[in-house]
Records
---
Amino acid sequence: MNLGISATEYLSLVRNSQISVEEFIAKTIDRIKMVEEKVHAYITINDQDALNKAKLIDKKIRTKEKTGKLSGIPISVKDNICTAGLKTTCASKMLENFIAPYDATVVSRLKQEDAIIIGKVNLDEFAMGSTTEFSYFGPSKNPWNNECVPGGSSGGSGVSVSALECMMSLGSDTGGSVRSPASFCSVVGLKPTYGLVSRYGLISYANSIEQIGPVARKVEDIALIMNVISGHDQHDDTTVKKDAIDYVEGLDIGIKGKKIGLVQQMTGDGVDKEVLSATNKAISKLQDLGAECVPVSLDSLEHSVAAYYTIASAEASSNLSRYDNLRYGFDLGTGGYEFKAYVSKVRSNFGSEVTRRLLLGAFVLSAGYYGKYYLKAQKVRAMMKSQIDEAFKKVDFLIGPTMPILPFKLGEKIDDPLTLYKLDINTITANLTGIPAISVPFEISSSGLPIGIQIFANSFEEKNLLQAAYALQQSVHLREVPL
Ligand code: GLN
């Protein structure tokens, strides 16, 4: 049984009873148990429940009952997305034992379509980070080279899909957290348009810029899951009411006649040589397929990292103020504490990166500094949006490398926050302006490490975006994960 098949192939095997869901899920659990020691993608493995669900789906198929659009597909879920009855820790001591009383909308939609939640996966604490090293439960490791980081913050999503420990995953992307691990682990990751996918049940980090997004090994699987998770949700007023779109239909239409803008600022100084040459190769492939490529300049990118960290930290400091260990938290006796001393003691249990963001956020929002930092950052954001609007008057897509460098060694940059922040330069534009972006695996470097290419489209143009990503995917043949 090949655990590496695409969800699309798997569904047809399941529907024709050529494969038993129970057997496939049991195999997947064996695989998780075998590779977890090396990669540490999971925080919670939902094995027993997954097997029970699998049996139910097999029975539905045997008795010719109607089955859902994702029948029997094992999906991992980032541990900042709520799952009723299953821990949701945010990889933080603050929520170490938290069990949400309800499912996030995306999770209930998956369940309605007979997907199987196989477990909850690792992240940087509260999704703050780019390497998954800032998890309370320890880092995840890159399946392509266990000494390297898998990207982040949805590292567990990227790793579990890449290492064949599930078929797809849901991550969250506030500044690149779906696309960075997708790129570093050689899988596909989509950040949808702001408002396309419900955030109800996503534990907020910076809610004005984040979206839940899928990770899969193939673009066609991303299309499949988007058909299920996208659309208006009465529990999230930021979701947009629009007619449902079928992302699977016409996926292979190609990109002939489309105009693609190569973002100049994403291929300048500081970009790894092999990443640069992969980007150029991707451009030639797309040209061979009939697309026209032109250079596009987005000079607001220069200020984007500063604007992003100001806005994201400000929102984080507000969102995370609820963690006072009274409503939920860990076991710390209240005896002997004044209220303020208690809260302060409790909050010293955030990890170093979260603490840094909370301090930064409180500072930029404080009286006297608000205009100088927060407001200024919002002006940069508005400027970026107008540059993006202008760009999409001229081109259908924008393109660049997802990450400026190759996956690096665990621990190498952990004490250098500024260097880590700068790695988000190519991804955060999509978050600050709301547009969708996808990372497609494109090449494996001479040292055996993955390189992903990122394509952006205008808001709510996911259908076109997936068609372009599919065309790019079909133009390359990548090695299988060496694990
Ligand atoms: N690296 C970015 C940050 O640390 C992005 C995180 C994310 O998208 N959740 O904020």
---
Amino acid sequence: MDMLSNRINSLSESATLAMAQKARDYKAKGIDIISLSLGEPDFKTPKHIQEAAKEAIDSGLYFAYPPVPGYQDLREKIAEKLQKDNHIDVKAENVVVSAGAKHTLANIFMALLDPGDEVIVFSPYWVSYAEIIKLAEGTPVFIEGTIENDFKASAAQLEAAITDKTKAVIYSSPCNPTGAVFSREELGAIGEVVKKHPNIMVVADEIYEHINFTGAHASMAAIPGMLEQTVTVNGFAKGYAMTGWRVGYMAGPLWLAKACQKMQGQVTSGICSIAQRAAVTAISGDMAPTKEMAAAYLRRRELVKGLIDEIPGVKANLPQGAFYIFPDISDYFGKSDGEVTINNASDLCLYILDHAHVSTVTGEAFGEPNCIRISFAASDEDLKEALRRIKEVLAKLN
Ligand code: PMP
Ligand code: GLU
């Protein structure tokens, strides 16, 4: 469409959301799709958080515009949590609450980037990083981890990628799509490189913090000397099964928090008041449901890894966190069932969708064209059936 801007024309559609839509379309036609494409907990938001939202409505106190950066008590609770759990020395004024971590990331990159600024992205990376950076007229520069090093690019790779245009570095840990987790030592080594460049910010995406199978979550902002050069991104979607409530946040230096607030003040204002009240209860309430969900993801990781290892030609590492597994399926490239030939990971995802009725996401969307992403945020029965079907249809490719 000629009237559309270059900005929107050059923006790719979110591959995760596109695949989820495809799965919904198939389901609407009555096809029994098992959806393992969307990174979305299959659990319901814990009851006490639901109740808090109902009470907020019934109180009649929360119908007006909330403050742009979020309710003060929510920002205070977030700052408390960051100090206590993550050893990040921030106050409420350093925190801005947004409509999901995706919105938080958009605020941050709009606030940080001028045209041509480079952002070094640890790859494989979450699908929206590159597009949000481009939307803010920045240039993503990828440093690549491989399956051999657990998909973790190194501090040395980071150092080699830095130029005088580098403005920021972004990673997620636990990582979407690979499940890789950076240890404190690994973050320390990355921090040493960044500290040599005081004008570079690290965007540390910790949204899968509570789904970490290593027993230890490390935060970049807690690495000595990194507080002023780090913005921590987190949210309620994954740890509290609150994807639809849309609450995320940033915590960083005051100048950046103020810039994100300014951005948000012109584009969205403060986010949904009732969702914020629910978030206050989530962050200060019982963590048992979060722990139970994490235990279920760990059990499913074992299940899925075991079943994937039984599929010939598929190679997967063991995810250390989040709820994705990211197998290398490149063995199937060039193979055919007599009708369809598989040339790449996108072809394989479509083949699996069409023939096994299981939706997954191509690794191309995450910067790794040899892999596909399978979400294990699904029931044990669905996971077993999905992998049985995938194994069956892959066996037809020769
Ligand atoms: N970062 C990562 C790594 C993600 O996987 C997601 C997807 N939920 C987000 C950010 C965005 O989260 P939210 O749903 O809070 O916008
Ligand atoms: N983050 C999830 C995923 O990667 C949700 C979808 C999205 O926001 O892109 O599947």
